[in-house]
Amino acid sequence: MAETGGQDRTERATPKRLRDARKRGELPRSRELASLIVVGAGVLTLMLLGNAIAHGAARWMQRALSPDPAILEHPDGMIAHLATLLRDGFSIALPLLVAGFAAGVIAPLVLGGWNFSLQALTPRFGRIDPLKGLGRMFSGASLVELLKTVLKAGLLGAIAAVYVYTHLDHLMVLGREATESAIAHGLGLALGALAWLGAGLLLIAAIDAPHQLWSYARRLRMTRQEVRQEYKEAEGSPEVKGRLRRLQQEVAQRRMMDAVPTADVVVVNPSHYAVALKYESGRMRAPRVVAKGVDLIALTIRELAGRHKVPIVSAPPLARALYRSTRLGDEIPANLYAAVAQVLTYIYQLRNWRSQTGPAGRPPAPPVIGDVPGGEADDAA
Q: Could you tell me if 364 and 350 are in contact, meaning their C-beta atoms sit under 8 angstroms apart?
């Protein structure tokens, strides 16, 4: 059964899928958590700088409500006075503005982190399609957002109503207090209101932030087929990798067989193993393995050696030891020097005997190789 449809997206998003989503600007975000951080920053600023802000606001209101009478006679002076009031008012509100701005910058770090995506800035003309817009408007996600907004507004409205009701007496006396005292008292009430609203936002954010994380993970879930396809794209198709390995093995085997005719000797176990050795005095510290193999490959090495008149020496323990302890191109290990020296001595003697015109006497006797390290008989021998 094909794995299609949302019900089959049971696999967690892979790191690559998460990176791709981040490039598209898709990150888990909670507006409620960001609002909580901004409100919290405002409350903290008022707690630390409330007195200074209250005194500054009182002086500002005195200057604003009691201007110098001489200014009223000169319109240009009034404009300068208004500019001064705007500047001073901005200076008084600056700590709150800076705190809000810093909170807005820091808020994304709590959930999702900062991210700059060019893809997110690319115009999407599908967004202006009226039919798709209506579909999004009446989608399940939009209804959930609407329900969240109504519940949030209801909760915060209820908190504000309770706060106003419990502090109504304090609000009513503000108009009868001196300006400076009223401003300080008003800021205290505003601080209390923000703290109560912050408590409400904390409750909402505690529900919304985990929901956003869950929704984001659910939205990026993958089917098993998608996971397998991504693995193939990242690691390469197993079929292609297998074919490449076969081609590499064929090339390596072809090169190995091309080196057999240049070997000095092929040491064999007549049943299974064949190892071709080459030694060049003055250029090599020790003989090197130029070809080796078992079974069918060993038979091919022996046939090539026979066609090119490369001497073949039967020494089963040595053949097994050479095969197991070396790789192609390696020098033979030191513990096999003595045994290989016997074989090469025999080969050189045999060459000298064959090179004589009308050789007299018998050819040299083949070497008898006894037990060598790593040359124990195997089960198949």
A: yes
Least confident of 78-92, 223-237, 286-300, 334-348: 223-237
pLDDT higher than 60, residue 373: yes
Q: For residue 216, report the phi and psi dihedrals to the nearest 5 degrees.
A: -65, -45
Q: Which residues contact residue 87 at a Cβ distance below 8 angstroms, ignoring those fewer than 6 apart?
A: none
Nearest by Cα to 271 from 290, 292, 291, 299 = 299
Please say whether the beta carbons of 315 and 343 come within 8 A: yes
| Residue closest to 212 by CA, chosen among 145, 164, 157, 268 | 145
As a whole number of angstroms, the distance between CA 296 and CA 273 comes to 9
Could you give the 3-state DSSP secondary structure of residue 275? strand
- 232 CB contacts (<8 Å, ≥6 apart)? 238
- Average pLDDT over the chain, rounded to whole? 79
Domain 259-355, CATH among 3.40.50.300, 3.30.200.20, 3.40.50.10860, 3.40.1690.10: 3.40.1690.10
pTM for the structure as a whole: 0.51
Of 44-48, 73-77, 90-94, 221-225, the one with minimum mean pLDDT is 73-77
Q: Are 205 and 32 in contact (CB under 8 A)?
A: yes
Where exactly are the structural domains of the chain?
A: 27-219, 259-355
